[in-house]
Write a structure and sequence with these properties.
heterodimer; A: alpha+beta; Alpha-Beta Plaits; 2 domains; four-stranded antiparallel sheet; two-stranded parallel sheet; 66% helix; B: alpha+beta; 3 domains; elongated
């Protein structure tokens, strides 16, 4: 089997693993840094709203233009410095829409366009157009988003617990901020496609976080009934055990989008695809990253403040100190009782918790060590 | 494995064929439906396929030129947007151009004539009491048009003979009698009395139309004698059989004034009316729906729910009308100056809803209900030009995008193949089933709800591949975990399922919640996105439950997978399954690195 397969096995058995929770401060730091950069980019450079949101100018050329749509688009973008939408009409004339233009600049652009297209400037009809994505759509979208976020936080708080709901929410904001920030920094114009992309990210980010949390919840179900691992340690195990899933899913989701972005947008020059696939690519990557590096450690952080978890930790540390003093031989006697399913995984803090809750069900009706 | 579990497994394993058969039948049926309907490709949005562009110009009304301002134009845009894109999936675009034009872009394959009617119709709706009515034009055939003594004769210099066939005698009784007059029954346009009759005690006509046989239509309270005469003259001159006359009948009439109007009765004959001031108008309508009324045989009707205010107004006016004789116990539902329905009233209607019946078919009833729900345009528009437009995205761009997407997908398959080997065939098959279902359903939704696919939606579908694949990955990883625990494949597949299932359901629920909330609350393209997200999420669950799981159960019985063949992706050795013999904990110990027990 491939090396990754081996890695999966070793992760599963806890033979290898990265301590996400312990190193969380580094990742928090990195995320805060990226987020600040994103917010800075957003405030300094701002977002360029496309014609769909703010309206702009529309130029209608005379009939029977010989220029191709793509060429005309190039001309219009050069003349205005904004994204242009070019459509050929039934009678052979062209409708060129350019964002962010007022009446003064539109005359200049009209002249430039006329020159490029080799027609008389008089023949080009210029008018201002309103947004097709009006305020009403935007307001309703915000309203819908607000309601959804409230509902999803409530749902997560009920299905999981409020700490996880909070962490998922933080991760979501993190992903969206980074995506929007990158957008501002790159300077692409915001189109309805971008908004749809952002909404897709929103769905994916939560989805991914929930998958990770589901495993976390499962593994920490009976945490107070044992005295071997703290919440953070189990959380860490949980991340590691779903790591293969996370990597695979991210690869599968990112490959096609990456294809659109790098091959479609970069090599083949499909410019319109860039803005959508960029937001998707950044957002998907951020979503996968935040589920593991931000959301779960955050839950662990919050959870460790709970009195029950604090006392658990105290007990565990005391026990470990005692064990360290009396030697290693004793701990197995206790743990074999608890973890009948996996008596072999007795190395503390490395193995065991991954299978601990399920072992209750699995171990039913068969005493420990009777697996053969 | 404990004995009872085995029984459970056997039970679970006997079903896979049924699930597979079910989903296969579904695919075949849907595909058959797709070919039968003749729409074998999804409708593409205007950015991908181009379409039709309609330019509408606001028509200034005499004395109201200032009405064409930004506020009204924006209102008109948002109403048109909702009319033409009610579900948010049709990808139509509406925007202002200049100061008095509105451009409506609709994607190829839409019924552009219907769309033009949808956006261009003003849809000003009024409920006006009928003062007088008679058959217009030369049709001497006995008609169900109820005539009344008073007003009719006074104005009756029309060639249309008094069709006294059904005289509304019983209408004169002031009590709101439950028995309808014969004239009304033949007209067959009854107002649904949604609630029990509420006999309004105020029998007096309270200043509106005269109670009984008043000699002239002075009934229309408020109009001065001058205006009255003018109205009479207009009424007399009105020839509703001529389209040009019809179009201008009652033009410029304010809702607070009496007016004349034309309408078609159930026999398709034109009838003319004098109508009182509007009692209820379109803004009082909260919601409207097209309903096939099978009980009364009225065919397609439009039912309206009034707002609270509207319901009260409607109860008041019907209470008053019920006291009167025919035809003054009728009210006319006037849409853009034309009477679409003129039901009689026999009692006050307090249910807060009403029904318009007329010569509707399914399409026209749905169109009207759509327009009433979203309200009237603040301005009147005329069609300036209709032209085709090409796709906003060049053909070469779309092609580049498709190539790039295909390369990306090929990489996904390759990755799955390398990582999951034999299992990847199940994954790829599941993706194919999912893709086929998505494609067929989207194609079918094109003609049914005007669903159109735009570029963002295509990209969304590509992300959906990731989410769908994630369900398999979650499940496969669970199965592998079970094998690592030392289980053989068949029990591993069954044991892994409940836990994987929960993860899949919990996470898909979040996606579905997003889709549902956004679909209900938002409008326009966001709604379209929500629809696509909801569809792919539901399909994900369907495919995993009905296809992937049963298929894996079946495959687990095959020797290739069950024996853990090297290329099956389930080779216990390669997965690092713990040999059940390994019971010492020593060998593991040295690896106890990553977690520091002293970590605080």
């Amino acid at each position: 089997m491939s090396k990754l397969g081996n890695l999966g096995a070793r992760l599963h058995h806890g033979e290898v693993g990265y301590d996400f929770v312990k190193n969380r401060k580094i990742w928090y730091g990195i995320s805060i840094l990226i987020t600040i950069t994103a917010i800075l980019g957003l405030t300094v450079r701002g977002l360029h709203m496309g014609i769909e949101f703010q309206g702009g100018a529309v130029f209608t050329t005379p009939k029977n233009m010989s220029v191709s749509v793509a060429t005309a688009e190039g001309y219009a973008e050069d003349a205005s410095g904004h994204d242009a939408i070019v459509q050929k009409l039934g009678d052979g004339s062209m409708r060129i829409q350019v964002a962010g233009i007022d009446t003064n600049t539109s005359d200049k652009i009209k002249d430039t366009l006329a020159e490029d297209l080799k027609v008389d400037a008089e023949q080009i009809n210029a008018e201002l157009v309103g947004p097709s994505w009006g305020e009403q759509i935007a307001n309703k979208a915000w309203q819908g988003l607000g309601i959804f976020l409230i509902l999803v936080v409530l749902y997560l708080a009920i299905a999981f617990e409020w700490r996880m709901a909070l962490a998922a929410f933080v991760a979501l904001i993190h992903d969206i901020t980074i995506t929007v920030g990158i957008y501002a920094l790159v300077g692409f114009e915001v189109t309805p496609g971008t908004v749809i992309g952002l909404l897709t990210i929103l769905g994916y980010s939560l989805y991914d976080t929930v998958v990770v949390f589901d495993s976390l919840k499962e593994q920490t179900r009976d945490i107070t009934k044992q005295t071997r691992w703290t919440y953070s340690e189990i959380a860490n195990r949980s991340i590691n055990s779903t790591l293969v899933r996370s990597v695979n899913t991210t690869v599968v989701a990112l490959l096609p989008v990456g294809g659109l972005l790098f091959i479609g947008g970069g090599v083949l020059g499909a410019g319109m695809l860039n803005d959508i696939s960029l937001s998707l690519f950044v957002g998907l990557a951020a979503g996968a990253y935040s589920s593991i590096f931000i959301a779960t450690p955050l839950v662990a952080d919050l959870k460790e403040r709970e009195p029950a978890m604090k006392s658990l930790k105290k007990r565990i540390l005391a026990k470990r100190a005692q064990e360290a003093a009396t030697g290693e031989s004793e701990d197995s006697a206790v743990s074999d009782e608890d973890y009948g399913d996996e008596p072999e995984d007795a190395a503390p803090a490395v193995v065991g918790p991954r299978n601990q809750p399920s072992s209750r069900g699995r171990g039913r009706g068969r005493p420990s060590g009777k697996r053969r | 494995m404990a004995a009872p579990k085995k029984g459970g497994n056997a039970g679970a394993q006997s079903k896979p064929w049924r699930s597979l058969a079910l989903i296969l039948i579904a695919i075949v049926a849907l595909t058959g439906g797709m070919f039968a309907s003749g729409h074998t490709t999804p409708r593409l949005g205007i950015d991908l396929a181009g379409g039709t562009s309609i330019t509408l110009a606001a028509v200034p009304e005499a004395g109201q030129e200032s009405a064409i301002n930004k506020t009204n134009m924006d209102t008109a845009v948002s109403i048109m947007e909702r009319r033409v894109n009610g579900l948010g999936v049709s990808e139509a675009e509406v925007q202002t151009q200049g100061t008095r034009n509105i451009i409506v872009n609709i994607p190829k394959g839409t019924n552009s004539k219907q769309a033009r009617e949808q956006v261009g119709t003003t849809a000003k709706l009024y409920f006006r009491p009928v003062v007088a009515t008679e058959l217009a034009g030369g049709g001497a055939a006995p008609t169900p048009s109820a005539t009344s003594e008073g007003s009719e004769q006074d104005s009756g210099k029309d060639k249309a003979t008094d069709t006294a066939t059904e005289k509304a005698t019983d209408g004169s009784s002031p009590s709101a009698s439950g028995s309808p007059s014969s004239s009304a029954t033949t007209q067959g346009r009854a107002v649904t009395d949604a609630l029990k009759a509420d006999e309004t005690p105020s029998a007096s006509a309270s200043g509106a139309a005269g109670d009984k046989a008043s000699p002239s239509p002075s009934a229309t309270g408020g109009t001065s004698g001058d205006a009255e005469n003018k109205l009479q003259a207009q009424y007399a001159a009105l020839d509703c059989t001529k389209e040009s006359v019809r179009a201008t009948a009652g033009d410029g009439a304010k809702s607070t004034e009496s007016t004349v109007a034309c309408g078609q009765n159930s026999q398709g004959q034109w009838q003319k009316y004098i109508l009182g001031p509007a009692a209820v108008d379109g803004t009082d309508v909260d919601d409207a729906q097209a309903v096939l009324n099978t009980q009364t045989g009225a065919g397609w009707t439009v039912t309206m729910d009034f707002t609270d205010k509207g319901a009260k107004k409607f109860a008041d006016i019907t209470g008053q009308l019920a006291q009167k004789q025919s035809p003054q116990n009728q009210f006319a539902i006037v849409l853009d100056g034309e009477v679409v329905s003129d039901p009689y009233v026999s009692q006050a209607l307090t249910g807060g809803n009403a029904e318009i019946s007329g010569n509707f078919n399914q399409q026209s009833a749905q169109d009207l209900s759509n327009m009433l729900s979203y309200g009237a345009l603040p301005l009147t528009f005329r069609e300036d030009s209709v032209t085709t437009v090409t796709a906003a995205l060049g053909g070469e761009q779309l092609k580049a995008g498709l190539i790039a997407g295909a390369i990306g997908l090929a990489l996904v398959v390759l990755y799955l193949l390398v990582y999951y080997r034999g299992l990847s065939f199940i994954a790829v098959l599941s993706l194919l089933v999912s893709a086929a279902l998505t494609y067929v359903i989207m194609s079918l939704l094109g003609p049914t709800i005007n669903f159109a696919l735009n570029l963002p939606a295509v990209c969304g579908a590509i992300v959906a591949i990731g989410i769908t694949a994630d369900s398999f990955i979650v499940y496969f990883e669970r199965v592998r975990d079970e094998i690592r625990e030392g289980r053989t494949l068949r029990p591993a597949v069954e044991r892994a399922w409940p836990r994987a299932r929960r993860t899949i359901l919990v996470s898909d629920f979040v996606s579905f919640l997003a889709a549902a909330v956004l679909f209900i609350v938002t409008v326009g393209k966001v709604q379209g996105f929500a629809f696509t997200l909801g569809l792919t999420t539901v399909l994900d669950v369907v495919v995993v439950f009905l296809f992937t799981k049963p298929l894996l159960t079946l495959m687990a019985r095959r020797k290739f997978f069950a024996s853990g063949h090297k290329w099956s992706g389930l080779d216990p050795k390669a997965l690092g399954a713990k040999p059940p013999l390994r019971r010492t904990r020593r060998p593991v110990r040295p690896a106890a690195g990553p977690v520091d027990p002293k970590e605080a």
